[in-house]
Amino acid sequence: MVLKLKRCLTGSVLVLLSSLLSIATAQVDFEPGYFIDTEANRVDCLVRNLDWRNTPSTFKYKLPGTDGVLERGLDETVEFGVDGQRRFIRREIQFDSSSTDLQALTEEMEPRLKAMVVFLDVLVEGDATLYLYKDVREHFYLAVKDGSMNYLVNRAYSPRDNEIRYNRSYLGYLRTNLTCPDGSTIVDRKLRYLTRELTGVVTEYNDCVGSSRATYNSQKVRKLQFGVHLGVFSPALVQGFGFGDALPVAFNDRLGYRVGLLAEVPSVFNADRVSIILEPTLMLFSGDGALSASGADFEVNVAYTTLELPIGGRYHLYFDNGNKVYAEGLFIYDLDFNGTLSTSRSLFKFDIRSNGSYGVGVGYKHGAHLSVGARYVGGRNILFKFPDLTSRFSYLLAQVAYTF
Question: How far is CA 76 from CA 58, 119, 333, in A?
Answer without folding.
Answer: 10, 12, 54
